[in-house]
Fold this sequence. Notes:
The chain is α+β, with helices and mostly antiparallel strands. Helices cover 43% and strands 18% of the residues.
Amino acid sequence: MEFRFFDPRAKTDVSQRQLPHWEQDNAFYFITWRTADSIPRDVLVQWEAERHAWLEAHGIDPKLEDWQREVEMLPERDHREFYRLFTLKWHGMLDECHGECVLKQPRVSEIVAENLRHQDGSRYALEAFVVMPNHVHVLAGVHRRGEMKNLCRNWKRYTAGRINTMLGKEGQFWQWESFDHVVRSAASLEKFKKYIFDNPIKARLKEGEYRVWAKPK
């Protein structure tokens, strides 16, 4: 499998619910999804309101399907400010380990890890992943546009069913939407790998409370 980094000239599929999703052929992605109880509702609503206000203050309509492209066009200072205020803050909220955090249990995190490895090398190429107490980070190459979202849906659907059955629970396990980035360079790929390996340390987790994996060199 050969993958490339984000190409602004290449055909890009853009879709949006609460978050925008960009997809290109043969691209690397850094993907995050979380449990339904991982961020308190009032905290998330406040974060979304602050992001909405910031975008409007910088001349960007937050209702646009492709508002993320407008953020990318901003001066570097503003772009970094957005990343610090919203992207980093969102990940920081996850690392506070809100919710029941059932993924701390090794038998539960193994369901996710096993499922991620299942079609590695056929439908996608894993670079690294970490299963945190209430969220998952995956770095992978995916071939076709539109396939990344399909993979996320399949991963979440299968693991939610297995985990609920194991724990004797019903109802929504994962938050519906994922947070994803098209990887833009070799340096960014390495940055995301480092983030994955540093994440348990940053969240002050003990051995056995997370599960991390990387492609053998």
